[in-house]
Design a protein that fits this description.
290 residues
């Protein structure tokens, strides 16, 4: 992963030296904002490595609510950063055997088709920022409720799993397809759905779920993030700063995951999602929350 960090650093330096800055209407990359973006990237990467998500669930609300980025740009930039976070986190988990690559492959196959369709839907919704916010709120809320319940009542997922043994052959890629569509529309990477889905629908042990989710996210993020760049929905400078931090953070998260109990991880995941969900939904109805 040292090579990826060097590449990201060189890309950022070249971008800034070229005087590219951020496009008109976007927050400037001044020193305080650069430091905040980097810190947010590290924090998102740590939680992403711990929870098996790409980190956009952390970055998107902060970029939108606190740093002044338009909602569509926050969505696109978040998915762009997931490319690097998922690469770093998946590497950390796979090297520690915390992943089922066969399952990740089938999830990714469905997810690629889904993210292309979802990216097309996003262009139709890009002008409807209020509706996008409501969709984001609902998408955050559904797994939040389940994860909080599991974290509090400590129900263990099934042991000795065999994904697909009692389900149709299309179940795993079909699930990936649905997650891919949501990824293209919301820019959240898909880990927020992959993690609880693998645990509760397919009975995958929580530690294996994290690495499997990140490995499946890589092709979805590459295609979805690439489409967002072409569509003009990515703040490239901010994205590169976030990516630098998230790559570092994802390695820390992947290395320390087994120091946390599954119930604590689920509870942390669920509480954060619940906060983000309530914030997005409240904004749709004109209520400002901190």
């Amino acid at each position: 992963m040292a090579g990826l960090l060097v590449v990201l650093f060189l890309l950022l330096i070249a971008y800034l030296l070229a005087g590219a800055g951020e496009a008109g209407g976007l927050p400037p990359l001044d020193a305080p904002r650069v430091l905040i973006l980097f810190a947010v990237g590290v924090f998102a990467g740590v939680l992403g490595g711990l929870l098996g998500v790409g980190g956009a669930t952390i970055m998107l609300p902060i970029m939108y609510f606190y740093l002044g980025f338009p909602e569509t740009i926050a969505i696109g930039t978040g998915l762009f950063v997931v490319i690097f976070t998922s690469l770093s986190g998946a590497y950390g988990h796979v090297s520690r055997r915390n992943a089922d690559l066969a399952v990740a492959k089938w999830l990714a196959l469905g997810g690629i088709a889904g993210v292309i369709a979802g990216s097309w839907l996003f262009t139709l919704l890009a002008g409807e920022t209020g509706l996008l916010g409501l969709i984001l709120g609902i998408v955050f809320l559904v797994p939040a409720i389940q994860m909080i319940r599991e974290g509090l009542f400590q129900r263990e997922p099934a042991r000795g799993y065999a994904v697909g043994a009692d389900r149709p052959a299309w179940a795993v890629p079909g699930f990936g397809l649905v997650v891919g569509v949501l990824t293209g529309v919301t820019g959240l990477g898909g880990g927020y759905a992959l993690v609880p889905g693998l645990i509760y629908i397919f009975g995958v042990p929580v530690y294996v779920t994290m690495g499997t989710s990140l490995a499946a996210l890589i092709p979805m993020a590459v295609i979805g993030g690439g489409i967002k760049v072409v569509q003009g929905f990515v703040a490239v400078g901010a994205g590169l700063i976030l990516a630098l931090g998230s790559v570092l953070g994802a390695q820390i998260g992947a290395a320390t995951i087994r120091r946390f109990s599954p119930e604590i991880l689920k509870l942390i995941f669920g509480l954060y999602f619940a906060y983000a969900a309530i914030r997005f939904i409240a904004e749709y109805f004109g209520v400002a929350l901190p």
